Amino acid sequence: MGEEVFRGNHIYMVMENKKVAAILDRVADYLEMDGADFRTRAYRRAAHTVDFLPQPIEEVRKEGGLEKLPGVGKAIALKIKEILDTGSLQYLEDLEKQYPVDFEGLLLVEGVGPKTIKLLYQELGVKNLADLEKEAKSGHIQHLRGMGIKSEKRILKNLEFAKKSTGRRLLGDIMPLALELKEKIGSLPEVEIVEIAGSIRRKKETIGDIDVLAVTSDPQKVMDYFVNMDLVGGIISRGPSRSTIRLKDGLEVDLRVFRKKEYGSALVYFTGSWELNVELRKMAIGRGLKLNEYGIFRGEEQLAGETEEEVFRALGLSYIEPELRENQGEIEAALTGELPKLVETSDIKGDLHIHTQWSDGRSSILEMALAAQKLGYQYLAITDHAHGLPVAGGLDETALMEQIREIDRVNDELEGIRVLKGVELNIRADGTLDIDTVVLEELDIVLAAIHSGVPFLPGTLTKIIQDTVENEHVDILAHPSGRKLKKRPAYDIDLEKVFETAADTGTIMEVDGQPNRLDLSDENIRTALKYGCKLSLDTDAHHPQDLQHMELAVFTARRGWAEARDVVNTLPLNKLLKTLK
Ligand code: DGT
Ligand code: CA
Ligand code: CA
Known about the structure:
Blueprint: H1 14-32, H2 38-51, H3 57-62, H4 74-86, H5 90-98, H6 103-107, H7 114-124, H8 129-137, H9 149-165, E1 169-170, H10 171-186, E2 191-196, H11 198-201, E3 206-207, E4 210-216, H12 219-227, E5 232-238, E6 242-247, E7 252-258, H13 263-271, H14 274-286, E8 290-292, E9 295-298, E10 301-304, H15 308-314, H16 330-335, E11 350-354, H17 365-374, E12 379-382, H18 397-413, E13 418-426, H19 437-440, E14 445-449, H20 461-470, E15 476-477, H21 495-505, E16 508-512, H22 522-530, E17 535-538, H23 550-559, H24 573-579
Parallel strand pairs: 4-7, 11-12, 12-13, 13-14, 14-15, 15-16, 16-17
Antiparallel strand pairs: 1-3, 2-4, 5-6, 6-7, 8-9, 9-10
Helix pairs in contact: 1-2, 1-5, 8-9, 13-15, 20-21, 22-23
Bound molecules: 2'-deoxyguanosine-5'-triphosphate and calcium ion (CA) (2 copies).
């Protein structure tokens, strides 16, 4: 199963596409300083298209296809060509000169967007996180137009959070890059085996660095290749069996080479976690053995080492999936044969949280349905935002009824997949939902969620969520904790109380697979399952390509010890419909 990540056709020229996308996105950030308008949206849309392109952007350009890409017109196509030719964009450099601020850093702070950055720069000269902290602490921000004591306090709190997570990257962002590296190194004829280890293999939500293991007949040649790849920004160390490089975007990559008979023990060791390694080593010592990255030894004799299975077996353990290797009970379960049979991507039969152009998505209902069909799904639920969420252009009752009729038409057109009628309700500060129950009764599925910007009274949130979960129309609580990775912690909710109510009422807890959400978290999932909750693994897709994020939801669920039977969207359509309220 460790190899599951590397399945699929992810092998694109991630770096170059990402770079172009990042530049276009940054232009959008600058334009948004004066408020979002059609230009901002055009650059955002183009950036998104390039980011998800299934082939190198250079290739598209050679085929003369730039202007045919969704969201890319003449003007932006010219800008893309300039980036491909020169590696930068004059237009962006001019904007940067006008506002010399650390956008990247400042945007990490939840509640600080381009407009606020402009205000802070013009009024207080804030250029970076350090300036921001200084001005917030000395109480200057509360006096700015549109700000107050509350927003100043919130900035300070979110700033602390952002500072803590700097340096780590999102699994969803790094995974494609790791795959590309694996592909590159694996393409050398001298390389017999190559694998990504470390936190990426354990599918941790954030990643410190990339750890690569290889078995090769010619370490020298492989190391040569590794430190000279075009992605490399600098060499930190270089040796015959281990080298460390820094990629151009700052991320570090370790490559270690081993002999084939050591590979399994090396993989166990460098997959970690550290905490698990310590326990395994103790177990070995308890049996009069020695365990390290080269194998399990009795005296000088290697008893096991070539495969992970034989290393675990030598310690009396059954195979432990990488996602479970956190020393949180998996050793005990492996000793007694009680490890869970973890849910897999191939178990998933549909996606229950999808947005379209009807609210803030980018594609039509039909486009999303066809994309879901390509993944082999039996169903998908269209769950656009309801109108209580003004930023997302949500639907009112009339629009929702119209969408229901449109879904009927789409279903008539399609065969082999069913589009379910749904909505993502917004939970208001008084606990009410933003669509009339008469209309809710017309739907197959109802999601409810809290969204940022709703002014809940302190201490009321847990009760409001519990009431929502009890609501006879609400099937799924979407992204229950409300966290945004690297941006903001979970809302102040007693999730255990929510799980208890959810288990009682049969309300499903979502695992939202957006790369910056992964909400519920692995830890929350384990707790929810202990309470007897069911899960729904969703993507919250706003674009057909986002449907790929199902993998991230599955990884997170696996880290939470979830089995297929815990997950409602592993059910075939008829059984799923019976499970919904
Ligand atoms: P990261 O990179 O912070 O996301 O987390 P990891 O788990 O990938 O950590 P990393 O890259 O420092 O090391 C990879 C694995 O190698 C780690 O999970 C455990 C193992 N490891 C490395 N050095 C040691 C060590 O000195 N002792 C033990 N017990 N394990 C080690
Ligand atoms: Ca690592
Ligand atoms: Ca490392």
